[in-house]
Amino acid sequence: MTELKDMAASESEAPAERRLNMIEAINDALDVTMGRDENIVIMGEDVGYFGGVFRCTAGLQQKYGKTRVFDTPISECGIIAAAVGMGAYGLRPVPEIQFADYIYPGLDQLISEAARLRYRSAAEYIAPITVRSPFGGGIFGGQTHSQSPEAIFAHVSGLKTVIPATPYDAKGLLISAIEDNDPVIFFEPKRIYNGPFSGYYDKPVEPWKRFDASVVPEGHYKIPLGKARYATEGDELTILAYGTMVHVVEAVCREKGVEADIVDLRTIVPVDIETIEESVKKTGRCLIVHEATRTAGFGAELSALVTERCFYHLEAPVERVTGFDTPYPHSLEWAYFPGPIRIGEALDKILSE
Amino acid sequence: MADRPQGDANLGDNRPKLSLHVPEPKFRPGDAVDFSHIQVPKAGAQPRPDETTKPEDMLDFAHGLIRVLGEDNKAHGAWDPKLDPETLRTMLGHMAMTRAFDERMFRGQRQGKTSFYMKCTGEEATSVSASMALAADDMVFPSYRQQGILIQRGYPMIEMINQIYSNRGDKLKGRQLPIMYSSKEHSFFTISGNLATQTPQAVGWAMASAIKGDSRIAATWVGEGSTAEGDFHSACLFATVYNAPVILNVVNNQWAISSFSGFAGAERATFAARGVGYGIASLRVDGNDPLACYAAEQWAANRARANAGPTLIEFFSYRAEGHSTSDDPSGYRSAQERDEWPLGDPVMRLKNHLIEIGEWDEERQEKMDLEAAEYVKKTTKEAEENGILGHGLHHPFRTMFEDVFEELPWHLKEQAEQAIRERETKFPEGLPNGGKGA
């Protein structure tokens, strides 16, 4: 089935409106794909009976049984390696790593194995696995529950890296990731599991249900990997962002009355270069925003791409707003976070040139 | 391979169908709990081998359970460390203090004074008693549930609370999640928060001590769930290959968040038995028996100090509370488990022992508990003068950039200036609550 057919089919079946937060949307994507494909299995720490520490797999073991949704030993290396082996058998595993900060013991299996299985076996073996993992800060998680390591994975040939920013996208992107025949890192911005984030940590979280992006159709639909979306459109500048930061920049632009093309990349590998070029050539200015550390962050790649491809359209140097190059601190979390002030300053600078 | 049948389940060959085993704990919420399957040998039943015994000559100790305190509250057998009453009272005091501390800090988190806390209720002996059997300068590499070691080693409680509150008094500068302490002065390694990473590091420290002809040994603690990490296996291998003077303590508290010990392999073998395959002397110990904990740790310390090699100790215990303040165990295990746990409570057992030998009474116990609670309360108040999390009394912004490297490189200098500028934009009149800011 083609993606278009899938989308058309599910849209015609979908009831008018059903609003979910991001956790529910992810749960729904897992449920829908598991119902369609018996080869999909879920495993990870606390994902079975308990349904995951963030509840993303709640109810799935009950529905699909213990051999399709199960807890694992606390061994990220083992979890990812077992997923690679299951993929070699022909299953389609969706392992969960409880926090992205805990993914590193599995790096050899991801970087040297999953990412290269197709290449080194000339496509005899593939690793159709989707590693789901909550990432990002803003929950007072300290250095071990806050990191944004997406650039590490973007740097690896053979891995796709996906980061949703809304419940609607989370479901559609996760289904695409699961059905993709290559390994996908699916980072879930945990700060926005329950509602989008304005960057003002002292204001209460507005639940997703108040936002249209929480309308999540029933059934199967896909959002293609590698296709960005315009979160807002405007002529003054282009802002490239993903995950939590899409909402923060939206709030800042709204507050400052800046009309921006906010491009939610959704997938950083493969990145939607067409949309980036289209927008930057239109606006002539480009701001890149991510929560991860700055040096060799994904913003550096984006900045290089924009400079290489849009140089003669640029009216100001490309700017980056990022987390600082320190471990994620506990008490100074909000001084670290690239919030409204840092973004506002960069906007003023780039628009004044 | 023409003689081999086609390996395709759909072709209908007549080989038996395989099935996957997924462990399941015996009891879930609402279930009646019956722990009669847990073998609890009589206290004092185990012989005590010489500390230099070869691992292959003491295999039974990886499967039994070393116990000293019996149902009669008396100390029994060869493992009785024969501690004088004053030492026993000190041990009880540290355990009671640890418990009082946990109570107060847990409450503090619930009152919004910090983001996170982890209790060690029911497991106090595995840190306090074990730590008492070590020299004060033996290096410890703990996990996140050994606050009892710091209390036993006399680390100032106010430092612990400052750390938990991430306030301006926190000597770790508010960088770490609560309870991730560090005190080089107390030979206490910085707690990572990542699991089992400390175990091979302890082995490395012990190897260094041996390289240098030092006399200090190393000890590490890890939960049974975390032994699943590859780091733990690296620890065992390096320990045995280099005959390192190290003690690998595995605290088997039965639960790793919602995953019972079966997900770390407990359905097939004890955790002590992990050591056997590596040729490491391995002891399985009643972790709720403070005297057995002390005796086993002392045995292992003697062994390491005699250059007779590493020891793996499994402390068989029970996590009486949730994993942390972020966890609610009523969602995945039966609430009855705690009450039915066949090895009792370590504080009660030591208290009853002291009373049994005529060295303690209920009044003194009550007074001690009260004094412990008062001390924690008073120290908490003192610490609160340095601030609580999120109320402005934190370390200055520039400290966020220090210690990434020994010296601040240009890009961190720029970023520090950025952070301070942001603070001035946000708080043009200075930080709230009299904070000093940059």
Automatic annotation (TrEMBL), chain A:
<dbReference type="InterPro" id="IPR005475">
    <property type="entry name" value="Transketolase-like_Pyr-bd"/>
</dbReference>
<feature type="domain" description="Transketolase-like pyrimidine-binding">
    <location>
        <begin position="20"/>
        <end position="195"/>
    </location>
</feature>
<keyword id="KW-0560">Oxidoreductase</keyword>
<dbReference type="InterPro" id="IPR033248">
    <property type="entry name" value="Transketolase_C"/>
</dbReference>
<protein>
    <recommendedName>
        <fullName>3-methyl-2-oxobutanoate dehydrogenase (2-methylpropanoyl-transferring)</fullName>
        <ecNumber>1.2.4.4</ecNumber>
    </recommendedName>
</protein>
<dbReference type="InterPro" id="IPR029061">
    <property type="entry name" value="THDP-binding"/>
</dbReference>
<dbReference type="InterPro" id="IPR009014">
    <property type="entry name" value="Transketo_C/PFOR_II"/>
</dbReference>
<dbReference type="Pfam" id="PF02779">
    <property type="entry name" value="Transket_pyr"/>
</dbReference>
<dbReference type="Pfam" id="PF02780">
    <property type="entry name" value="Transketolase_C"/>
</dbReference>
TrEMBL record, chain B:
<feature type="region of interest" description="Disordered">
    <location>
        <begin position="1"/>
        <end position="54"/>
    </location>
</feature>
<comment type="similarity">
    <text>Belongs to the BCKDHA family.</text>
</comment>
<feature type="domain" description="Dehydrogenase E1 component">
    <location>
        <begin position="94"/>
        <end position="388"/>
    </location>
</feature>
<dbReference type="InterPro" id="IPR029061">
    <property type="entry name" value="THDP-binding"/>
</dbReference>
<dbReference type="Pfam" id="PF00676">
    <property type="entry name" value="E1_dh"/>
</dbReference>
<comment type="function">
    <text>The branched-chain alpha-keto dehydrogenase complex catalyzes the overall conversion of alpha-keto acids to acyl-CoA and CO(2). It contains multiple copies of three enzymatic components: branched-chain alpha-keto acid decarboxylase (E1), lipoamide acyltransferase (E2) and lipoamide dehydrogenase (E3).</text>
</comment>
<dbReference type="InterPro" id="IPR022593">
    <property type="entry name" value="Oxoisoval_DH_suAlpha_N_dom"/>
</dbReference>
<keyword id="KW-0786">Thiamine pyrophosphate</keyword>
<feature type="region of interest" description="Disordered">
    <location>
        <begin position="418"/>
        <end position="438"/>
    </location>
</feature>
<feature type="compositionally biased region" description="Basic and acidic residues">
    <location>
        <begin position="418"/>
        <end position="427"/>
    </location>
</feature>
<keyword id="KW-0560">Oxidoreductase</keyword>
<protein>
    <recommendedName>
        <fullName>2-oxoisovalerate dehydrogenase subunit alpha</fullName>
        <ecNumber>1.2.4.4</ecNumber>
    </recommendedName>
</protein>
<dbReference type="InterPro" id="IPR001017">
    <property type="entry name" value="DH_E1"/>
</dbReference>
<feature type="domain" description="2-oxoisovalerate dehydrogenase E1 alpha subunit N-terminal">
    <location>
        <begin position="16"/>
        <end position="56"/>
    </location>
</feature>
<dbReference type="InterPro" id="IPR050771">
    <property type="entry name" value="Alpha-ketoacid_DH_E1_comp"/>
</dbReference>
<dbReference type="Pfam" id="PF12573">
    <property type="entry name" value="OxoDH_E1alpha_N"/>
</dbReference>
